Amino acid sequence: MLGWLFRGLRQGRITTRYPRREERPPHGFRGHVEVLDMSNGSDDLIQLCPTGAIGVDDHGRVSLDRGRCILCGECVLAAPDRFRFVAKYELAARSRPALVVSDDDLPETEPTRESLGELAPALRRSIHVRHIDCGSDGTEEWEIQALWNPYYDIQRLGFFLTAAPRHADILLVTGGVTPAMRGPLERTWAVMPGPKALVAVGTDACSGGLAAGGDVIAGGVDLVLPVDVYVPGSPPAPIAIMHGLLLAVGLLDVGEVAA
Amino acid sequence: MTSISHRPKARPDDLPQHLGAVGEPGPPNEIRLKVGTLAFRRAARMLRIAGARLITLFLADTPEPALVGAFALRGSLVVLRAPTEGADPLTYGSLGEFWPAARWSEQELIERHGVHPLGAVPEHLTAPNADSLDRKVHGLDAFVIPYGPVRSGVFEAIQFQIETGGENVARMQTRPFFKHRGMEDLFAGLTPDRAVYVAERVAGIATVAYACAFSQAVERALDVQPARAAERWRAVYAELERLACHFDVIAKEAETTALYVGQARFQILKEQVTRLRARLTGSRFARGVVVPGGVRFAGNMSLDELSGELDGIEEQLTRDRRLFLGTASMTDRLIGAGHLPRDLIEDYAAVGPLARGSGVSTDARHERPYGDYRRLGLQVVTRREGDAMARVNVRFGELFESLRILRQAVDHLRRGDGRLQTPLPTGANGSAFGWAEAPQGELVVWVELRDGLVHRVHIASPSLRNWALFDHAFPKDVLTDFAFIEHSFGLTPAGADR
Q1: CA nearest B203 in A: which residue?
Q2: What's chain A's average pLDDT?
Q3: At what angle do helices B228-256 and B482-489 cross, to 10 degrees?
Q4: What are the start-end ranges of the H helices in A63-135?
Q5: Domains delineated in chain A
């Protein structure tokens, strides 16, 4: 046991100070796709995307739905003058339309519910989180588990994992919902006491991702239950999920990098 | 089960004659044999006697609709094909009776494709319902615990129906397929370089293995040889993936035995490998790099820097391994737990660290070397004990072996870059198997191409094949041993359910 202690001491502190200090992704990290030029798009652009995230309207205005983007990079390779990868973690949003990047002045979209933090400010430093897998590819689970490793240690911010949905304040959902998981998802949500929040983690949970093209999965979690925070990414990095959780409890605002 | 006292040596040339089949041309390492549906069972039985390992059974569509069985036999893949034209309802003699490994495949054939293997009993496994519980118990005071699909902790959805009187596990039933997403059907109609994104998402924690197996199947079908530099980068990404998955298993073993410092140490190593992958490829799971024909780009890092990172990981791993194996509270729980004897492994045709922990030396990188593994050489790590400790020890051995291979691949890369992508012929037809050794075990992918587009894909995932053994992993173990026996399997429901 002493050996383990000395190993730990030798390592020193490795835990991130996020959100008090910004965490920068490594150079070349595929965080999200930025649209450099939103005008004069042709229908060819739509064909570039395997999940239909790129849209072009009648006036040639280009839009990109981050909730569908799987970060494959086809568009960046084919049209580098128009699309570019940006290394960034903070991409979560409080409504589905807010994930769509476009030229349009979208009307301010209302969040699904008041955030947990507004409803119960005293709760903010003790939040119990429950996770349910409804058909992910397995990577989102790894990235959520990573939040409790020494690098991210989300317990320092007052987030605890709980096994019982009856104790949970936040439900993390991964994957577009498969027919067999629909019932368990609805029941898990129903027994959680209010105020509560539902966070969709990953592109599959936001929109169904690639699987939405098939016969089994129709789309994202919001087809079954209202979602408070969408965290896009295939899969989203641990910091991105942490940002989504902070958004859900109102400790951060949308787009804010560090508190 | 059939007991086989001696095994006659079957030479590949004699196979058609022995099995009453007709040989057909196929890609290298693939022995294609055509039989009638009525002779299918007998031929499969002969293959078993010859020492073959069953990989999968499925319905193919190229060159004509057929029932196909894939078997691994001494460095070759034996493909048994029984055309089904005119057979309605489609039927054949079930293999499950003499080969338990056929169980999951036959259930899928019955429930999803309307095939009727004679002698097989439908088990209603592939469309599970969280409320349907098999309450039959086999003793007084016994009850059934439905564990899952929503489980404690952050785990993928799967259900275990555990029959217990409180301590001993009288019966265990694994119920996968809760997260069946119809992934195999998503491939149809896509171009190969777009279909690879689907392959990457079948089982995300083995992204590179799935991308490689799929890409190699396409390359074999179209007779394309990827460039050497591309094969080297594939090996680098694949071995980094193995490091991450094995670190994950060991961290979870430490967690379930409440050795939280050990858990933290191996989580740190796993995160370091994940960050290394993010620096090399821009994706923490090395996604969007491996494509049919090669790789999209070389690692975004100098080779000196990469070997420096590998040295750092190896140094830490050496120290942490010594502490881990020296912590008796940990090893005491693992030794003897979840014992799987060698014959059971062979009956169920298990693969990966699970098989190697019970003395079965099977590794796709060694049996049918592909890509850069033809040049790298591999020492297959095996243990004989067959318990959870053996499976952890196999993984420790493989971690060091992976680091050795990684160094060698990096050295080869220093000799020069060269081309990374070989263009695929457009509008071509063909079909072939591709394979890769995923961290969970041997992964085999069947791909059919028509007019340059993917027509049909079948995936034989290591997770599904190995999970059949979990029902037998509690011979003397109690309910509290559940978690670390499960983690010692190291499987992923996403891969099993597809």
Answers
A1: A137
A2: 85
A3: 180
A4: 74-78, 116-119
A5: 116-248 (3.40.50.12280)
Residues in chain A: 259
| pLDDT of A258 strictly over 60 | no
Of A139, A144, A216, the CB nearest to B181: A216
B267 in reach of chain A (CB within 8 A): yes
Separation of alpha carbons B265 and B172, rounded Å: 32
Buried b (16+ CB within 10 A) or exposed e, B104-138: bbbbbbbbeeebebeebeeeebbebebeeeeeeee
Q: How many CA atoms lie within 13 A of B473 on its CB side?
A: 33
What digits encode the pLDDT tens for the residues B353-386? 999 999 898 898 998 999 889 888 888 999 998 8
Domain boundaries, chain B: 12-118, 143-175, 183-497
Partner residue opposite A180 with nearest CB, options B129, B153, B282 = B129
C-alpha–C-alpha distance, residues B56 and B202, integer Å: 17
Task: List the 32-71 stretch of A: residues with Cβ below 8 A of B.
Answer: 50, 70-71
Whether B197 sits inside 8 A of A7 (CB atoms) is: no
For residues A149 and B264, is the Cβ–Cβ distance under 8 A?
yes
**A189, A166 Cβ separation under 8 angstroms:** no
According to DSSP, the β-strands at A100-101 and B430-438 are unpaired
Q: In this predicted structure, what is the pLDDT of residue B270?
A: 94
- CB of B251 closer than 8 Å to CB of A151: no
Name which of A81, A115, A133, A85 is nearest A195 in CA terms. Answer: A115
Sort B325 into a burial class: Cβ within 10 Å, 0-12 / 13-18 / 19+. middle
Q: Which CATH superfamily is domain B12-118 in?
A: NADH:ubiquinone oxidoreductase Nqo5 subunit (3.30.460.80)
Give tens-digit pLDDT for A167-206.
999 999 999 899 989 999 999 999 998 888 999 999 999 9
B154, B197, B201 ranked by CB distance to A131: nearest: B154
Helix (H) or strand (E) run with residue B465 in it: helix B462-467
Tokens of residue B206, six digits: 């083995």
pLDDT band for position B2 (50/70/90)? very low
For the domain spanning B183-497, the CATH number is 1.10.645.10
Nearest CA-CA distance, residue A27 and chain B, Å? 7
Name residue, tokens 């064909």: A47
* For residue B1, pLDDT beyond 50: no
How far apart CA B402 and CA B121 sit, in angstroms, is 42
Tell me how far CA of residue A186 lies from CA of A38, A116, A183, A198, B51, in angstroms.
Answer: 39, 20, 5, 12, 48
Asked if B181 and A139 come within 8 Å (Cβ–Cβ), the reply is no
Give the strand pairing for B169-175 and B441-450. Answer: unpaired
Other beta carbons within 10 angstroms of residue B1's beta carbon come to 11
CB A82 within 8 A of CB A42: no
CA distance A186 to chain B (A): 12
